[in-house]
DNA sequence: CGCCCACAGTGACTTACATCACGCAGCCAA
DNA sequence: TTGGCTGCGTGATGTAAGTCACTGTGGGCG
């Protein structure tokens, strides 16, 4: 905790003006998350904005039977749009988030975030921008489910993974299936087809992506 | 156009402070839409915020093969979140909107909207609130597709329709099928099952919803 | 070393939904 | 009236994906 200083925040959020940075340092809490640790849990009332300093978070939806569905990954320098809208979450399905890698997050109390919206232009722009980006991302995800078949969705998923995390995907077929709300066997078959076309190479517990475009 | 006055805007947007209302009256354009008229078209760069004064708009997604998918309806007093994020829309799938009923909308130039965010607290809250609501709504829609089967999605669709428009649904099976990105025959069969259970009564070109809860 | 166990491959089957083909009924207009 | 159009009902069939049951395999560990 003490190892996180102004410089680190400034590095990830260079657009923030000085007084805002000071405010963040003074008022916010920095929390370290171990790999796999949840940050937003079911039914929890969110009272803080969450900014990601380093590491990687995964934001996903879960239904009442425990089925998961990946919404998007959060990278350092970005914020969780969901943590910004403290609506009541009584629905059966819940948004959840957890750390994919060991991460550090900045927790900003909701009432301060509200104040800062009016006070700091850079904060305001950041919040609005976050909404926009996540909205866009959610729309893309929606598209891929409504209009595309599973093989196309898998491609979309792999591409996004390569962009955010890298071309070496350290997940089992089972885990990929869960993120797409599908089943292992189906994902295995589709991955095998991709391998035959030279797009990926499969290994135990991980796979490498080569070229998804020409598939 | 001249029949729309300050009182009408004030009635739909009572939370706006006086100077903001004056600004809207002075700077914005009011546009009338006939039933079925599009307001956001494919690939169009959106330069205005759209507020709905009266009537009803339908916001939907369309893919490159012309398949539609309903996102949500917009009622008077609300705004189109999408018109607020003027990102470039080069993706294959497009968000579109059109009038379901004859409607009047207020078009607010994007640069003014930006200014007003800092200037008027009520405008700021309105914009943030719009993002939140639409985000929530989109999440619910996402849920229903990812986790639910078509019969449940149809129920979800009917419920939403009843809430926003009323229990008499003046659409053909074909039109309902399109909004769910399904096919007429399947929707016909599912509707018939609902009729047998007493939840709806079917007619030519319209249907009446009685009680969806106990199904 | 051999045992175990999680991961992966595979064929057979089921299911949900789409698609096709056709018939029929109501309604408008020539 | 009659013809045609549009919306709706329905069986037959196709297809993508989920499920089940089983086999194979590689890697860690006693």
Automatic annotation (TrEMBL), chains A, B:
<dbReference type="Pfam" id="PF00027">
    <property type="entry name" value="cNMP_binding"/>
</dbReference>
<dbReference type="InterPro" id="IPR012318">
    <property type="entry name" value="HTH_CRP"/>
</dbReference>
<keyword id="KW-0238">DNA-binding</keyword>
<dbReference type="Pfam" id="PF13545">
    <property type="entry name" value="HTH_Crp_2"/>
</dbReference>
<dbReference type="InterPro" id="IPR018490">
    <property type="entry name" value="cNMP-bd_dom_sf"/>
</dbReference>
<dbReference type="InterPro" id="IPR000595">
    <property type="entry name" value="cNMP-bd_dom"/>
</dbReference>
<feature type="domain" description="HTH crp-type">
    <location>
        <begin position="148"/>
        <end position="213"/>
    </location>
</feature>
<keyword id="KW-0804">Transcription</keyword>
<feature type="domain" description="Cyclic nucleotide-binding">
    <location>
        <begin position="12"/>
        <end position="99"/>
    </location>
</feature>
<protein>
    <submittedName>
        <fullName>Crp/Fnr family transcriptional regulator</fullName>
    </submittedName>
</protein>
<dbReference type="InterPro" id="IPR036388">
    <property type="entry name" value="WH-like_DNA-bd_sf"/>
</dbReference>
<keyword id="KW-0805">Transcription regulation</keyword>
<dbReference type="InterPro" id="IPR036390">
    <property type="entry name" value="WH_DNA-bd_sf"/>
</dbReference>
<dbReference type="InterPro" id="IPR014710">
    <property type="entry name" value="RmlC-like_jellyroll"/>
</dbReference>
């Amino acid at each position: 905790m003490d190892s996180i200083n102004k410089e680190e925040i400034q590095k990830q959020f260079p657009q923030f003006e000085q007084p805002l940075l000071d405010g963040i340092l003074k008022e916010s809490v920095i929390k370290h998350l171990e790999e796999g640790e949840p940050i937003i849990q079911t039914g929890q009332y969110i009272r803080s904005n969450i900014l990601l300093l380093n590491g990687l978070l995964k934001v996903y939806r879960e239904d009442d039977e425990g089925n998961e569905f990946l919404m998007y990954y959060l990278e350092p320098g970005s914020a969780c749009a969901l943590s910004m809208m403290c609506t009541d979450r009584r629905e059966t399905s819940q948004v959840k988030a957890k750390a994919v890698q060991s991460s550090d997050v900045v927790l900003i109390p909701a009432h301060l975030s509200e104040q800062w919206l009016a006070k700091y232009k850079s904060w305001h722009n950041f919040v609005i921008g976050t909404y926009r980006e996540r909205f866009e991302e959610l729309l893309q995800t929606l598209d891929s489910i409504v209009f595309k078949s599973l093989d196309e969705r898998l491609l979309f998923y792999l591409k996004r993974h390569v962009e955010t995390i890298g071309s070496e995907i350290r997940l089992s077929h089972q885990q990929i299936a869960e993120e797409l709300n599908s089943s292992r066997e189906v994902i295995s078959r589709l991955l095998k087809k991709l391998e035959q076309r030279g797009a990926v190479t499969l290994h135990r517990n991980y796979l490498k992506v080569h070229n998804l475009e020409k598939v």
